[in-house]
Amino acid sequence: MPEISRFYGIIIAMFHDEHNPPHFHARYGNDKISIRIKDLSIIGGTFPPRALGIVMEWASLHQEELLKNWELAMDFKPLEPIAPLR
Predict the structure, then answer these.
(1) Domain interval for residue 29
(2) Model pTM?
(3) pLDDT, averaged across the chain
């Protein structure tokens, strides 16, 4: 799993050759979720409310970088790390 960020026990990843719409994956313990980048809506999975809030805050700060990584992933290029939430 190509990890692009990690903070507060949450791992953010994006896969090469994924399906549309542009999205990223988050994992926290045994919970997993997929989030659409454009409007930060949940595509699938479940997450604890507090961890979901943290992911949404991070994603809202990094939407442009997430979209750039999506384009890199679709071209099978290395993904760029994105700063964690501090």
Answers:
(1) 3-74
(2) 0.94
(3) 96
